[in-house]
Amino acid sequence: MHKRRKNIAIIEPSDIIYEGLFNLIIKNIQNSNIHRIDGINDLQDSEYEFSLVIINPKCVENRLKEFIKLKKYHHNALWIGLVYSYIEDDVLQKFNQIFKITEPIDNLLNIINSNIDYDDKKQNKELSDREIDVLKLLTQGLSNKEIADKLFISTHTVISHRKNIVEKTGIKSLPGLTIYAISKNITSINQSFN
Questions:
Q1: What residue spans define the domains of the chain?
Q2: What does the pLDDT look like over 113-138, one tens digit per residue?
Q3: 6, 12, 75, 99: which sits with the fewest CB atoms below 10 Å from its CB?
Q4: Is 81 strand, coil or helix?
Q5: DSSP string, 40-61
Q6: pTM of the full predicted structure?
Q7: Cα-flanking dihedrals φ and ψ of residue 82, to 5°?
Q8: Dihedral, CA atoms, 28, 30, 32, 35, nearest 10 degrees?
Q9: SS3 content of the chain, % helix, strand, coil (to 5)
């Protein structure tokens, strides 16, 4: 079966970081077209439908209203914030995923690979393996920070997984998610209430 090529936008002012991302993605992610976009205004005017947007959060730091409109315009895209300097939490929370430049490269590739077919996964409504791991730990009463420490991921990634779990299940409350996890044999009553 032939997969449709996915468009990936990179909004990054640094030529060195852009080139590194470009080469990393080209070598490791199949069926992708990479587009360098100068800024969020250019993304709005683009003729392409993007599956993924990797963006330096500094590019939207003082333009959050425009950024939120842009996310609605490209509603099928996943937004990854590429962080290598201090960014306020209210800005970081606007992204689906956060990747710190000090993290191992494999972490970024895993984020991209797990999200490149995001549209298909959303339609499937099946939780990914990592989302199941997060859900299990949530039902045990762990905080986002504790889950992040156990799974060796960032707190922002845990929050993104939680958002995806809520989107896919349609359940927002922790008791509701616990009942869902028990009914799907993701966890047991004994594991959830220990």
A1: 1-123, 125-194
A2: 776 654 444 444 688 999 999 999 99
A3: 75
A4: strand
A5: HHHHHH-SSPEEEEEE-GGGTT
A6: 0.59
A7: -95, 105
A8: 20
A9: 55, 15, 35
